Amino acid sequence: MAKTNELKIASYNINGINSRLHVLTRWLAEFQPDVVGLQELKCTDEAFPAQAIEALGYSAIWHGQRSWNGVAILSRVGEPVETRRALPNDPKLEQSRYIEAAVRGLLIGNLYAPNGNPWPGPKFDYKLEWMDRLCEHARNLLDSGLPAMLIGDFNVIPTDQDVYKPERWAKDALFSPDAREKFRDLVGQGWIDALRSLHPDARIYTFWHYWRNSFQRDAGIRIDHALLSPALAKALRAAGVDREPRSWEKTSDHAPMWVKVRV
């Protein structure tokens, strides 16, 4: 267990929780995060592997969807108390993209934002609409004054610094000017990008394609983020990426990113 006054809170797009359960359980056992937001479960609620996760000492809440999307929050420092499982006025409630819980006095919103490709098109329009809903809810979280965190796969590459070769992503929805502007608007409300605030000049990636030896060449992008409210940012102690699991057999194309906060 962690020190009683410090929590390691992680985000991991697992890219299919049941097909990569061996990766998830190994990472939980070896890296021992206290709270985890998972994305892309790609399973129904009934198929969620609750017993395997509970066997490692984690309580869990989840919102599944057959074959696509899906989000969960795991905690080994007290049961997560669910406060929301969709953004207010989400135009497509059948898509499981957001779950929120109170854990150890923190409010944690775990999200899997729409990819938006192909761009332009209806999927990209939905991406922007969903991000508008996120911004509205994020503003309400800030107005509450609670120590809050938005963590997950935002499917946005914020800047040129967050991508191996910007020109190769110029036509991708993740790097589109509109998506980046939405992310800037979100951060501009007062949220603190934990990784960038502690590592302002570093090249840090959280996703690498499976092809062309992308991970071995470190040809990645940063799309998994942790945004902290000002009340929580004061407690930020560290932030990073657990790169090792990306090298494991039959692993996700994402690596877990994490923050440590004093509580």
UniProtKB/TrEMBL annotation:
Segments forming domain Endonuclease/exonuclease/phosphatase: 10-254
Molecular-function GO terms, alphabetical: double-stranded DNA 3'-5' DNA exonuclease activity
Entry EC no(s): 3.1.11.2
Cofactor(s) for this UniProt protein: Mg(2+)
Enzyme class: hydrolase
Keyword annotations: Hydrolase, Magnesium, Metal-binding
CDD domains xref list: ExoIII-like_AP-endo
InterPro entries from the UniProt entry: AP_endonuc_1, AP_endonuclease_F1_BS, Endo/exonu/phosph_ase_sf, Endo/exonuclease/phosphatase, ExoIII-like
Keyword Hydrolase: yes
Record bears the keyword Transferase: no
Homology family: Belongs to the DNA repair enzymes AP/ExoA family.
Identification of the protein by name: Exodeoxyribonuclease III
Annotated organism of origin: Sphingomonas hankyongi
Phylogenetic lineage: Bacteria, Pseudomonadati, Pseudomonadota, Alphaproteobacteria, Sphingomonadales
Protein encoded by which gene: xth
